[in-house]
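Lecture notes, unit on protein representations.

Consider one protein chain, 211 amino acids long.
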Amino acid sequence: MGGDGLLEQINHQIQRLNVTVANGCHVDASITHSPRKPKTRAAYEVVSDREERDDETDAQTSMRVIAVTQPGVDIEARWVSIRGQSFFGYKQHTLVDHNGLVMAVETTAANCHDSKLLLTLLDKAEIVPGTRGVHANKAYCSQKHREALKSRGIKNGSQARWFGSKILRYCGRAKAYAWHILQAMAYNLKRLPRLYVERLLPRQPQASCVF
């Protein structure tokens, strides 16, 4: 069973306890740093197999510039600049419900824009038409997404970041994604006891002030 399947299985068990919220969700993205970043500027080399080609036109187009892979560097991670500061690694895209329980996760290189995974997360979490709202920061505000949410009958909103993944211990996007899934599962299980108890306890009426 893949990572998505494990998270889905845990969330299904949580839903049986009537803890997760069906209406409304929050979407955000956070940077996961990779310590395996390049030590120096990227080096490039020109590759040409011109002498092996008979057609002159094709021979000219066969010349290309490629980056030289540096030993120990995570070749799937990417650089991104945020508020003038550079980061190397991956981006964790997360959808949570109003209780903060993680419903869906995606992992991309750090230079992928936050908004590109919005609809993918909604599909993975099976957010249905009529949902009260999808809350996200201004990075997700675009005409494309406003129209997409409207067509799905979902109200737009805004919210702040939920948590970050700090420094990655592994190399490659697949392992980064697996780590993000495991974090989400652990996060949900950690929050579950308190949320379950709150469901069982009766709500106390708020006393009115007589002064």
